[in-house]
Amino acid sequence: MHGSGAEISREVFWNILGPGFPTEQVLLYVLVVIAFLLFFHGLARSGFFTRMKAITSAKGSDVERVNNPWDRFWYMVTDVFGHRKILREPYQGVFHLFIFWGFVALAITTAIVFLQADIIWPIWHVWFMEGNFYLGLSLFADVFGLVAIVGILMAMARRYFMKPKWLDEKGEDKVILWFILAILVTGFVVEALRIQATETDPASPMNPYIWFSPVGRTIAFLFSGMSMDALRDTHVVLWWTHVLGALGFIVFIAYSKLLHIIMTPVNIFLRPDTPQPPIRVMPPEMFENAETFGIHNLEEYSWKDLFDTEACMRCGRCVEVCPAFNTDKPLLPRDVIQNLRTYMENKAKFALDADGNYRIIPDEEYTGPALIGDGIEKDTIWACTTCMACVEACPAYILQFPKLIDLRRYLVMMESDFPAEVMDVFKGMENNSNPWSIGAHSRADWAKGLDVPLLSEKGEAEYLFYVGCAGAFDDLNKKVAVSLVKIFKAAGLDFAILGTEEGCCGDSAKKIGNEYVYQALAMANIETFKAYNVSKIITMCPHGYTVLKHDYKELGGSFQVFHYTEILDKLIKQGKITLKQPIENLGTITYHDSCYLGRYNKIYDQPRDILKALKSGSLVEMKSHHAKSFCCGAGGGRMWMEEDLGTRINQKRTQEAEASGAKTICTACPFCYTMISDGIKELDLSEKLQAFDIAQLVAKAAGLDQKTNKAGGEGEQEAAN
Amino acid sequence: MNTVVCIKQVPDTETLIKVQGAGIVTEGIKWVMNPYDEFAVEEALQQKEKMKAGAVTIVSLGPDRAIEAIRTGLAMGADTAVHINDAAFYEKADPYATAAVLAAAVKGLQYDAIFLGKQAIDDDSAQVPAMLAEMLGIPVVTMVVKFEVAPDKSKATVTREIEGGQAVVEVPLPAVFSAQKGLNEPRYASLPGIMKAKKKPVDVKTAADLGVSVDPKTVVKEMTLPPARQAGKIITGDDAAAKAKELARVLHEEVKIV
């Protein structure tokens, strides 16, 4: 090899090939082929193909996964190479980026060397790996190799010193970092030995350029005292060690979480491109025909749900952000996915016949552990607030919580098995169209004496103000509804409410798993909206906002839906509302992002812009905010359930607000407003912290509040209690 | 064990009630199964499940809309139903007439026990269980909070609520039992239950079919709603002593109770 005589280059296979026939080179080819064969053998042995059979036999429906393939491909490429999601967590993001790009660069370098030494030179006798190109390549490989080592050391520092409690610790986790570090280090030592043997001699044509391998050169100083024979012997041994290590790495991928190198990009390609994390659609006619609802059997999931379990490499980002986990509840989104995978693996093995063929076992024949209860525990299923933090955090675009909703659907609709306190919620929704079980006839009582236009009297209006159950029935949130209509009227907005014709939006029913009741509620609303030719809707509650805007489409209701913060922000910016009176005693303000406004609908700026426009106090952010905001604990129907496991989510969030140094915490969601207000009371923080909905502050600042223009006046707090 | 459950459809407790003459305006009312009857249905279902045999029959007197309450019972798991739909009864039935027509409907059925709610939450008469038992010539145990039946179905051991405590009563079957809150936790009908309920047989009968005519012993002459609650008054004052003084003045001069 290296018969080209190029001076500014290096001999590939230096010290490896003997004279004559390149036996060692051929041996390397054979080893590479064996490594790839062992990789596929490993896949088979680790149950990969059986799992794939199970995945492809799943029957559940799913959203489009391969539409716009080129867009998907490009998104995948940019996401994989640009670490779009991975970098959301700076420390983990950076070390993964370092390791990733280090290995990509080394793979590119190896590919170039392979092209040169094994294809171009033997066939055409051309040597392009020389001169500036060679020096550049040498520097490139050295620098990126070092970058990868830095990344691995950072990962080790996290695993062995920082030890975040959400980090998984399995057998393979103890090995992987050391393994790849060993491959890199042996690579550098091999390089250093070669440099010491061939380039340190001032007579060598490479000697002036020796620092183009900065890492290798530096390590070479360690070997300056060694004899040429010792250098050569050590080099040969370490070269083969390095090669076997690298090939072993390929085989190891098949057996370990390293398979994510392949599966995660595939999952990114297959990501849902819906505006919301898709929850499985149940077409209304299904309720007439189907025999079973929700999921209690693995095969009832979609192939993609099961494929998600292949893409999960247990990074734990979903656990880190999960409000249930962070308050010591038995829900770790990662473990939901991993348990599903284990369950699938076991069931798949169970479903293999003697010839190794896979078959779906009929329910009545299957005697193994149950999916609900054994595979995934009920407490886990009920702990979820559907806050979407897991889905948002997952770099592999896995849908964690929607899988739990399928299980809730089965428990609720098939087994009537749900937390006892939810019974009244369902009955309230069914009989009085609100979860508070307050008489439906009193839905518009909050508006008495305010001269709020009713759509039934007005006939039509530009906007329907859909108040929602909280604004209509909950004393605390009625005040927000009152503030909003005062603002709308002052701004001259053409709006009306439905009064007693309004019904519950159904979000809580849907997320608790009662799709049947949700659809009945939704269809009643859609019918009313259509009867009045409603096209634009303003909602007070982000939950209603989400279902009206997105989910009602599935049932034939397509409307332009706005959250009130979008409208107020616009009205303020247009000068239609003048915030003329700064509000006293607000102090520093912090804004609590509602999950359904923020993560679900990407409304982050409008609420903050409104608060800035108040000119009544500076704005600070809590530890978690925007897309990483921490749930108040009320989503997913948790508003209506006892929180008897672990600590309370609303208290944790309230403590975050306190720690931010804010005196006022603002919400834009009735559930959040309730939960945070309760948190302040439960933690006895009323002296230090006060909660308001943004709409109340706007009404005050616009001089629309009859009461004194001081926030947190006694009367105000009393009424809030 | 075969059981009969007599249920009544009543206005939802939260619904807006408007009085009109000696009755209420029925328009706009949300109707539900009488909550105490839900305990009765649940107990019948639990007994059937425990004995792994028998059938649960719902019997209800009411107009067309009462079918919704009957379907609710069927959705919970009852097997069949008898719907006594007779305008004459709907207009004038008092507890006695109701018990008479229920007794006529039950007579043709096979049963080891009859369950009812302890009272209907609309007229609060609480008379039907006892009258029904009398008319059928069988014992009655009211305010039942625990029910156990002997394996041979010859007798039941029943815990009933009494003032300040509980009493355990033994009674030969068949007998009538009226359910008190605490007897069980009524189930939420499953979706397949709701779907199946739509296809379960409901035997619609008139009073004439049953050979009874309406013969009420009481007539409602008038109905009134309780007076609307007055808004509360917050006593203000500079200190506790001033507030106490003002409170005393208000109680003495305005409320006139001291």
TrEMBL record, chain A:
Enzyme Commission number, as recorded: 1.18.-.-
What GO annotations for molecular function exist for this entry? 4 iron, 4 sulfur cluster binding; metal ion binding; oxidoreductase activity
UniProt keyword Transmembrane helix, yes or no: yes
Q: Which UniProt keywords apply?
A: 4Fe-4S, Cell membrane, Iron, Iron-sulfur, Membrane, Metal-binding, Oxidoreductase, Transmembrane, Transmembrane helix
Signal peptide coordinates: none
Q: What class of enzyme is it?
A: oxidoreductase
Q: Which cell locations does it reside in?
A: Cell membrane
Its Gene Ontology cellular component terms are: plasma membrane
Membrane topology of this protein: Multi-pass membrane protein
Q: 4Fe-4S ferredoxin-type domain spans which residues?
A: 303-330, 374-404
Name recorded for this polypeptide: Membrane-bound EtfBA:quinone oxidoreductase (Fe-S oxidoreductase)
UniProtKB/TrEMBL annotation, chain B:
Among the GO biological process terms of this entry, one is: carboxylic acid catabolic process
Which SUPFAM superfamilies does this one have?
A: Adenine nucleotide alpha hydrolases-like
Asked if Glycoprotein is a keyword of the record, the answer is no
Molecular function (GO) terms listed? electron transfer activity
Pfam families recorded for this chain? ETF (PF01012)
Q: Sorted alphabetically, which keywords does the UniProt record give? A: Electron transport, Transport
Q: Name one GO cellular component term.
A: mitochondrion
Q: Where does the Electron transfer flavoprotein alpha/beta-subunit N-terminal domain lie?
A: 21-214
Question: Does Transport appear among the keywords?
Answer: yes
**Family the UniProt entry places it in:** Belongs to the ETF beta-subunit/FixA family.
Annotated protein name in UniProt: Electron transfer flavoprotein subunit beta
Q: Which organism is it from?
A: anaerobic digester metagenome
Q: What are the leading ranks of the lineage?
A: unclassified sequences, metagenomes, ecological metagenomes
Per UniProt, what is the name of the gene that codes for the protein in this document? etfB
